[in-house]
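Narrative of accomplishments. A recurring question from our advisory board has been how the design workflow behaves on a single, concrete structure rather than in aggregate. To address it, we present the structure tokens for one chain from the evaluation set, followed by the sequence designed for it. No filtering or post-editing was applied between the two.
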């Protein structure tokens, strides 16, 4: 028999849970990719990896209201479920969970129970988006509880989010293996993001300033042997400040595991940057070895 397996779509927790339980009861493995939809090649790369490494690849599409602040773009966040179905199916997803908000939060959002992660959930993005990672951690813990034992695939572009999810999974002893996947980029280096659609043509051209700043920091560490983290921060910030369209939020050199800002570079580090370009706030990161 040839051809791709049909896509089974579920809108209820009970149906999605039962489908994945049936997979495991047959001795097969599950790969899960949680998303907020408006899928792009970055998501598709996660789908393909889950499909390649697991017997059944599953995905979720849910725009999580808990991770949006009062002044953020929940209502205007891009959505295209029909397109998402096609991308998911073509990339090997066979079980798709697309719940309405009333299914995830029958008593209404925000939920009475929240998951909060100290340490990695503080600073950086959390400083600009209070409560954001509580919302992420709460919904991801809920999705893991619904899906059951699996491997869960996340991109490294949202590096702090990845660190938060790793900590939630470990601290709550959730039966999920977290798989980190490299950031997918456009040919000019811009990290793929659903929020890139907010950019005008001139803002899109200027948005490569984030990856250029990271590359500047990486070069300073790996090729110029700079070990003063503050000097690297200033080099990255200067690149972004030189772009008139970009408004720098932060440029940091942090420990890859704890995300603690460093003073001295002596081993692997993570370079993280964030900036606003017009209506879009973009983030990016890159590893470097000191």
């Amino acid at each position: 028999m040839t051809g791709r397996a049909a896509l089974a779509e579920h809108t209820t927790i009970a149906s999605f849970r039962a489908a994945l339980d049936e997979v495991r009861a047959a001795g097969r493995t599950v790969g899960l990719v949680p998303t907020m939809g408006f899928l792009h090649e970055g998501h598709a790369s996660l789908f393909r990896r889950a499909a390649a490494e697991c017997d059944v690849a599953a995905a979720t599409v849910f725009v999580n209201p808990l991770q949006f602040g009062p002044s953020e773009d929940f209502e205007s966040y891009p959505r295209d479920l029909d397109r998402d179905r096609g991308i998911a199916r073509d990339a090997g997803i066979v079980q798709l969970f697309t719940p309405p908000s009333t299914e995830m939060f029958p008593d209404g959002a925000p939920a009475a129970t929240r998951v909060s992660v100290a340490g990695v959930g503080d600073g950086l993005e959390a400083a600009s988006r209070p409560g954001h990672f509580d919302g992420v951690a709460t919904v991801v813990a809920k999705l893991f509880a619904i899906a059951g034992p699996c491997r869960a695939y996340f991109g490294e572009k949202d590096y702090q989010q990845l660190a938060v999810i790793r900590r939630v999974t470990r601290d709550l002893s959730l039966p999920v293996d977290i798989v980190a996947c490299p950031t997918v980029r456009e040919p000019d280096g811009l990290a793929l993001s659903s929020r890139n659609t907010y950019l005008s043509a001139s803002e899109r051209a200027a948005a490569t300033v984030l990856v250029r700043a990271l590359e500047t920091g990486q070069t300073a560490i790996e090729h110029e042997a700079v070990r003063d983290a503050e000097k690297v921060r200033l080099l990255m910030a200067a690149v972004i400040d030189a772009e008139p369209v970009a408004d720098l939020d932060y440029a940091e050199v942090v420990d890859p595991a704890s995300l603690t800002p460093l003073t001295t570079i002596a081993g692997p580090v993570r370079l993280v940057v964030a900036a606003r370009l017009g209506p879009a706030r973009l983030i990016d990161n890159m590893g470097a070895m000191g």
